[in-house]
What does this fold into?
Amino acid sequence: MRVLIVEDNVLLAEGLALLLRTEGHEVIGTVDTAEAFLGAVDEHRPDIAVVDVRLPPTFSDEGVRAAVEVRRRHPGQPILVLSQYVERTYATELLAGGGGGIGYLLKDRVGRVSEFVDALRRVAGGGTAMDPEVISQLLVRHGRHPVDSLSPREREVLALMAEGRSNGDIATRLTVTERSVHKHVGNIFLKLGLPPSDGGHRRVLAVLSYLSQ
It folds into this structure.
Protein backbone atom coordinates (compact mmCIF):
# COMPACT_ATOMS: atom_id res chain seq x y z
CA MET A 1 0.00 0.00 0.00
CA ARG A 2 1.02 3.60 -0.62
CA VAL A 3 0.46 5.39 2.69
CA LEU A 4 0.38 9.08 3.57
CA ILE A 5 0.99 9.94 7.24
CA VAL A 6 -0.56 13.14 8.61
CA GLU A 7 0.89 13.67 12.08
CA ASP A 8 2.59 16.64 13.80
CA ASN A 9 4.38 14.53 16.44
CA VAL A 10 7.72 13.84 14.75
CA LEU A 11 8.59 10.77 16.81
CA LEU A 12 5.18 9.18 16.22
CA ALA A 13 5.24 10.02 12.52
CA GLU A 14 8.70 8.50 12.07
CA GLY A 15 7.73 5.48 14.17
CA LEU A 16 4.65 4.86 12.01
CA ALA A 17 6.71 5.26 8.86
CA LEU A 18 9.29 2.73 10.09
CA LEU A 19 6.58 0.29 11.14
CA LEU A 20 4.80 0.49 7.80
CA ARG A 21 8.00 0.11 5.78
CA THR A 22 8.94 -2.90 7.88
CA GLU A 23 5.54 -4.39 6.97
CA GLY A 24 6.35 -3.90 3.28
CA HIS A 25 4.30 -0.77 2.58
CA GLU A 26 5.42 2.41 0.83
CA VAL A 27 5.21 5.65 2.81
CA ILE A 28 4.79 8.33 0.17
CA GLY A 29 5.23 11.14 2.68
CA THR A 30 4.67 12.53 6.15
CA VAL A 31 3.01 15.92 6.58
CA ASP A 32 2.02 17.87 9.68
CA THR A 33 -0.62 20.40 8.58
CA ALA A 34 -4.10 20.22 7.08
CA GLU A 35 -3.00 22.27 4.07
CA ALA A 36 -0.11 19.90 3.35
CA PHE A 37 -2.48 16.95 3.78
CA LEU A 38 -4.86 18.29 1.15
CA GLY A 39 -2.01 19.05 -1.24
CA ALA A 40 -0.41 15.62 -0.82
CA VAL A 41 -3.67 13.79 -1.53
CA ASP A 42 -4.37 15.98 -4.57
CA GLU A 43 -0.88 15.24 -5.91
CA HIS A 44 -0.25 11.61 -4.95
CA ARG A 45 -3.66 9.98 -4.37
CA PRO A 46 -2.37 7.53 -1.73
CA ASP A 47 -4.00 4.16 -1.16
CA ILE A 48 -4.75 5.36 2.37
CA ALA A 49 -4.04 8.35 4.62
CA VAL A 50 -3.41 7.95 8.36
CA VAL A 51 -4.56 11.19 9.97
CA ASP A 52 -4.39 12.75 13.44
CA VAL A 53 -7.38 14.84 14.55
CA ARG A 54 -5.45 17.75 16.07
CA LEU A 55 -2.95 19.55 13.87
CA PRO A 56 -1.31 23.00 13.85
CA PRO A 57 -2.02 25.83 14.24
CA THR A 58 -4.83 25.49 16.83
CA PHE A 59 -4.56 21.75 17.58
CA SER A 60 -8.34 21.38 17.74
CA ASP A 61 -9.94 19.59 14.77
CA GLU A 62 -7.87 20.57 11.74
CA GLY A 63 -7.02 17.00 10.78
CA VAL A 64 -10.54 15.57 10.75
CA ARG A 65 -11.93 18.70 9.04
CA ALA A 66 -9.31 18.27 6.34
CA ALA A 67 -10.30 14.59 6.06
CA VAL A 68 -13.89 15.65 5.36
CA GLU A 69 -12.62 18.00 2.65
CA VAL A 70 -10.43 15.28 1.14
CA ARG A 71 -13.43 12.97 0.86
CA ARG A 72 -15.42 15.79 -0.74
CA ARG A 73 -12.72 16.32 -3.36
CA HIS A 74 -11.92 12.64 -3.82
CA PRO A 75 -14.96 10.51 -2.95
CA GLY A 76 -13.98 7.13 -1.55
CA GLN A 77 -10.42 8.14 -0.62
CA PRO A 78 -9.54 5.72 2.23
CA ILE A 79 -8.79 7.49 5.51
CA LEU A 80 -7.83 6.04 8.87
CA VAL A 81 -8.10 8.58 11.69
CA LEU A 82 -5.57 7.76 14.44
CA SER A 83 -5.88 10.04 17.43
CA GLN A 84 -6.16 10.33 21.20
CA TYR A 85 -9.46 12.16 20.81
CA VAL A 86 -12.94 11.60 19.40
CA GLU A 87 -14.10 14.68 17.51
CA ARG A 88 -17.80 13.88 17.25
CA THR A 89 -19.08 16.61 14.93
CA TYR A 90 -16.66 16.18 12.04
CA ALA A 91 -16.23 12.45 12.63
CA THR A 92 -19.99 12.04 12.14
CA GLU A 93 -19.81 14.19 8.99
CA LEU A 94 -16.94 12.07 7.71
CA LEU A 95 -18.94 8.89 8.23
CA ALA A 96 -22.15 10.35 6.85
CA GLY A 97 -20.42 10.91 3.51
CA GLY A 98 -20.70 7.17 2.89
CA GLY A 99 -18.65 5.11 0.49
CA GLY A 100 -16.65 3.03 2.96
CA GLY A 101 -12.90 3.25 3.36
CA ILE A 102 -13.16 4.89 6.78
CA GLY A 103 -11.54 4.00 10.10
CA TYR A 104 -11.16 5.70 13.47
CA LEU A 105 -8.78 4.26 16.04
CA LEU A 106 -7.58 5.66 19.37
CA LYS A 107 -3.80 5.73 19.79
CA ASP A 108 -3.84 4.59 23.42
CA ARG A 109 -6.09 1.61 22.62
CA VAL A 110 -4.10 0.06 19.77
CA GLY A 111 -2.73 -2.96 21.58
CA ARG A 112 -0.90 -4.82 18.82
CA VAL A 113 0.90 -3.85 15.61
CA SER A 114 -0.85 -6.68 13.75
CA GLU A 115 -4.28 -5.25 14.67
CA PHE A 116 -3.29 -1.81 13.39
CA VAL A 117 -1.92 -3.17 10.12
CA ASP A 118 -5.03 -5.32 9.66
CA ALA A 119 -7.25 -2.26 10.22
CA LEU A 120 -5.18 -0.33 7.69
CA ARG A 121 -5.70 -3.05 5.07
CA ARG A 122 -9.45 -3.22 5.70
CA VAL A 123 -9.90 0.53 5.32
CA ALA A 124 -7.68 0.69 2.22
CA GLY A 125 -9.88 -2.05 0.75
CA GLY A 126 -13.04 0.00 1.24
CA GLY A 127 -14.11 -1.40 4.61
CA THR A 128 -14.32 0.07 8.09
CA ALA A 129 -12.29 -0.18 11.30
CA MET A 130 -13.84 1.56 14.30
CA ASP A 131 -12.67 1.46 17.90
CA PRO A 132 -15.58 0.49 20.20
CA GLU A 133 -14.95 3.60 22.32
CA VAL A 134 -15.29 5.78 19.23
CA ILE A 135 -18.55 4.04 18.37
CA SER A 136 -19.99 4.63 21.84
CA GLN A 137 -19.14 8.34 21.73
CA LEU A 138 -20.58 8.83 18.24
CA LEU A 139 -23.94 7.30 19.07
CA VAL A 140 -25.68 10.48 20.15
CA ARG A 141 -29.31 10.01 19.24
CA HIS A 142 -31.32 12.57 17.27
CA GLY A 143 -34.84 11.21 16.76
CA ARG A 144 -35.84 7.83 15.39
CA HIS A 145 -33.44 6.01 13.09
CA PRO A 146 -33.84 2.71 11.18
CA VAL A 147 -31.28 1.16 13.54
CA ASP A 148 -33.92 1.52 16.28
CA SER A 149 -35.81 -1.38 14.69
CA LEU A 150 -32.96 -3.82 15.34
CA SER A 151 -33.11 -6.31 18.18
CA PRO A 152 -30.47 -6.10 20.95
CA ARG A 153 -28.59 -9.05 19.44
CA GLU A 154 -28.69 -7.52 15.97
CA ARG A 155 -27.25 -4.30 17.40
CA GLU A 156 -24.44 -6.32 19.00
CA VAL A 157 -23.69 -7.92 15.65
CA LEU A 158 -23.76 -4.56 13.86
CA ALA A 159 -21.46 -3.00 16.46
CA LEU A 160 -18.92 -5.77 15.85
CA MET A 161 -19.33 -5.30 12.10
CA ALA A 162 -18.42 -1.64 12.66
CA GLU A 163 -15.15 -2.79 14.23
CA GLY A 164 -14.45 -4.62 10.97
CA ARG A 165 -15.05 -8.13 12.34
CA SER A 166 -15.86 -11.03 10.01
CA ASN A 167 -18.85 -13.30 10.63
CA GLY A 168 -16.50 -15.92 12.06
CA ASP A 169 -14.97 -13.42 14.49
CA ILE A 170 -18.42 -12.21 15.53
CA ALA A 171 -19.59 -15.79 16.16
CA THR A 172 -16.59 -16.40 18.42
CA ARG A 173 -17.11 -13.13 20.32
CA LEU A 174 -20.81 -13.81 20.93
CA THR A 175 -20.40 -17.58 21.45
CA VAL A 176 -22.91 -18.44 18.73
CA THR A 177 -22.69 -20.30 15.42
CA GLU A 178 -21.54 -18.56 12.27
CA ARG A 179 -24.85 -19.59 10.70
CA SER A 180 -26.65 -17.64 13.43
CA VAL A 181 -24.51 -14.58 12.74
CA HIS A 182 -25.25 -14.88 9.01
CA LYS A 183 -28.98 -14.86 9.82
CA HIS A 184 -28.63 -11.78 12.04
CA VAL A 185 -26.67 -9.97 9.33
CA GLY A 186 -29.41 -10.76 6.80
CA ASN A 187 -32.04 -9.35 9.16
CA ILE A 188 -29.95 -6.22 9.66
CA PHE A 189 -29.76 -5.63 5.92
CA LEU A 190 -33.51 -6.15 5.58
CA LYS A 191 -34.44 -3.80 8.43
CA LEU A 192 -32.08 -1.09 7.20
CA GLY A 193 -33.64 -1.26 3.74
CA LEU A 194 -30.47 -2.37 1.93
CA PRO A 195 -31.50 -4.15 -1.29
CA PRO A 196 -29.95 -7.49 -2.32
CA SER A 197 -28.48 -5.85 -5.44
CA ASP A 198 -25.93 -4.03 -3.26
CA GLY A 199 -24.12 -7.35 -2.70
CA GLY A 200 -21.08 -7.29 -0.41
CA HIS A 201 -21.17 -3.50 -0.29
CA ARG A 202 -24.24 -3.75 1.96
CA ARG A 203 -21.98 -4.55 4.92
CA VAL A 204 -20.25 -1.20 4.65
CA LEU A 205 -23.55 0.61 4.07
CA ALA A 206 -25.03 -1.00 7.18
CA VAL A 207 -22.04 0.06 9.28
CA LEU A 208 -22.21 3.63 7.98
CA SER A 209 -25.93 3.76 8.69
CA TYR A 210 -25.23 2.61 12.25
CA LEU A 211 -22.41 5.08 12.87
CA SER A 212 -24.12 8.12 11.35
CA GLN A 213 -27.43 7.74 13.24
User: Anything to note?
Assistant: The beta strands are 2-6, 26-31, 48-51, 79-83, 102-106, 128-130.
